[in-house]
């Protein structure tokens, strides 16, 4: 994991208790993680009471560099020791390193989940609905008499909450074919997981 | 079930009693071509000239035959019911047999053509799948996520559609199980009872 000179400069400021008090540091690290995970977007970091005695310009720099650190660490799946090494170089005290590691490690899975949603993927199937009809007749043909399944695949795209539907009909034979192919895929997936 | 013929329809078909059996065969063939490809006026004229009658009469008899065949095929009328339905036309035995024979030979094809004309919903055609393991992306390195990417082919008579979808292991299993349940439902006593009663 490599950080830019700007980010490292910001971290150095952040580790300096003359600029950021111990109390403010905890608040700041929490805010960094929460903001990334959009847990609290109602107030801006600059308006946070716990950070009121930190200089505005310093606060901005510290926030930006901590966000960079957290994202890069999550991206590379860094452990506490890697982060410690970087922070030690930025003159962080052992206490502060501990605090940051503790908060970061607890939030890491969530941040990584967020990162994994970035980028383009085909619609992801999350559920399926089906309906079974018996097709009797239409205006051209009488006594068609065959079962018809209406299948609706529910899909999610790009981490959006709304699902989109993919709909199609299939006869008994076609559904058998579909299920057969899906079972084949399941079996192969299981085999691959045992490698 | 009997097909009730209207008077006008009967009049048109009566023409068949005045021609040879070979000609009836030819008319049946032309009626079948009508069902397959639509009307061909040129054939009517040629036939009319050969038989020395007016083209309108030929057109009426071909259309009458076509209507008789499609209606009977639509209702899936049985051999005996077909015989009884055309009884009212007062045809001779060999002519009647000829029509019955022709009807039975072509019923399946006519029904297939009619089915093609009916309203259809996008149908499942094929599913292709492949198994990927995502290893890294720009925003996240070092992960191992198995992904099943699928290509779903659907479509009706005219249009074909391909949808690319993906899913994970848990959802794939859920999808398979749910659709298997759907298949099993057709074998349930409720469904079997209904189907048996409809098919009676």
Automatic annotation (TrEMBL), chain A:
Stretches assigned to the COMM domain: 124-193
Top-level taxon: Eukaryota
Parts forming coiled coils: none
Family matches, as InterPro entries: COMM, COMMD3
PANTHER family, per the entry: COMM DOMAIN-CONTAINING PROTEIN 3 (PTHR31159:SF1)
Protein family membership: Belongs to the COMM domain-containing protein 3 family.
Name of this protein: COMM domain-containing protein 3
UniProtKB/TrEMBL annotation, chain B:
Signal peptide location: none
InterPro entries linked: COMM, Commd2
Domain COMM, first and last residues per copy: 123-190
Pfam families associated with the record: COMM_domain, COMM_HN
Protein name (Swiss-Prot/TrEMBL): COMM domain-containing protein 2-like
Domain of life: Eukaryota
Xref: PROSITE patterns: COMM (PS51269)
